[in-house]
Amino acid sequence: MSEDLLKKITAHCKEYGFVFPTTEIYDGPGAVYDYGPMGCALKNNIRRYWWESMVEAHENIVGIDSAILMHPTTWKASGHVDAFNDPLIDNKDSKKRYRADTLIEDHLARLEEKIEKEVEKARKRFGSQFDEALFRSTNARILELQSRREAVHKKFKEALEKNDLEALRALILEEEITCPVSGTRNWTEVRQFNLMFATQLGSLSDDSLTLYLRPETAQGIFVNFLNVQKSSRLKVPFGIAQVGKAFRNEIVARQFIFRMREFEQMEMQFFVRPGTEEEWYDYWKTRRMEWHRRLGLGTDLHRFHDHEKLAHYAKAACDIEFRFPMGFKELEGIHSRTDFDLKNHQEYSGKKMSYFDPDLNESYIPYVIETSIGLDRMFLAVMTAAFHEEKLPDGTERTVLHIHPALAPVKFAVLPLVPKDGMDTLARRIFDDLRRQAPGQYDEKDSIGRRYRRQDALGTPFCFTVDSQTLQDGTVTVRHRDSMAQERIPAEQTKAFLEEHTSLRSLVWSR
Ligand code: ATP
Fold first, then answer.
1. Is the pLDDT of residue 206 over 70?
2. What is the 3-state secondary structure (H, E, C) of 291-308?
């Protein structure tokens, strides 16, 4: 996996109508993207997979859709006005701006890589005799790299915990971290930068109010906690889910749709009795990993990562990381948020946020476990796992998206082998019947081979080909995207075939 792969995915997304840079004709703002016809369909399917798994598959989880513009005190209470900052540093030669913490994290990852390379080299040298554990614990070079990594890591953790900007800068200088663009170590001081976008409500400057575009969807859930609980007659434990836009003025906004300034989150806040948060935290960690694994993207692509530094609200937190082309990075966060948010909203608003528990006959402010995933990041994860350039036995190549059939934007294509002799008329009839069931395409242009390639590039899992035999016995060829195998089935079975192989509902419930 490499940055090169990310470039290829980005180009593929543009060429086939998945994702375009926004307002491209004006060289639009960086790190904001538009989804094209294919991307929009794939994104909708991922959203539905999440929504049906979280809301419809749980009797005690309900969904809401809250506003992007909220009263600004929300963000005082949530801690975002004071604490939603990134430490930034500029390189004076390249004039490029970086997150100081990310520069150090990348440096740590490089040290880690060096260790792994040494191990791999030794594995090759010693062959079957290789004792990895022994090598790791005795080799001088490995021990030196390990102790350096640990020392840097310790200092980094301390600086983050104390919010010590000087110490972050000192570490960057000590470790001789250079700017990837200029290659120099000519750094400015480290400064804090608030990530929220501000805007004005009202037309006159004296009666206007500064509002923020929400940096997360979670607060819309917290402020509605009692509205939802009462109107839906819910009992703790229960959850509230929502999908919606969030905005962050990210400093380092590169890497395609991995880090955007406008993006979509899928968040669920699960309200529990205080004292039970640990078991629910473990429960949701397991359930969310299952959700990812069910897509069969590959067994070595996900891992858990516990947070070094807990956010201002958290008691425990971990990420589900995914192996993106740039390496393992956060895909989803699972956080034990205590009663931090509800308690603060109660304090700042003066309105009670407690829940009366009829089973205990007492009132309390529930604790919260949050699962939070970026829809766009999930899109990139699906694309990363799906995108393949394959050499075929006949020497040709194909670019194919191995997207799970339930998420694929186009589920099927109907192709007449040649558009004549009644094959086209029959193929059209089959297509018109099937499109009532699932999104598909009819294509009669170019050779059959080229049409298969086009569908491979969109990730269409099945093509139904109508040939002269179809005219005689009513069977069509099913061509499978992944194996490229072909089989014949009666045309009237294509509906049932699609239902069996592409149903999102089956994926959601296949636990
Ligand atoms: P990061 O450390 O990558 O900045 P975060 O820890 O700030 O992320 P959270 O606040 O936990 O992220 O947000 C939850 C999820 O929202 C993340 O796991 C990620 O999938 C998604 N997300 C966060 N920021 C962005 C962004 N700028 N662009 C796209 N997705 C994002």
1. no
2. HHHCCCCCCCCEEEEECC
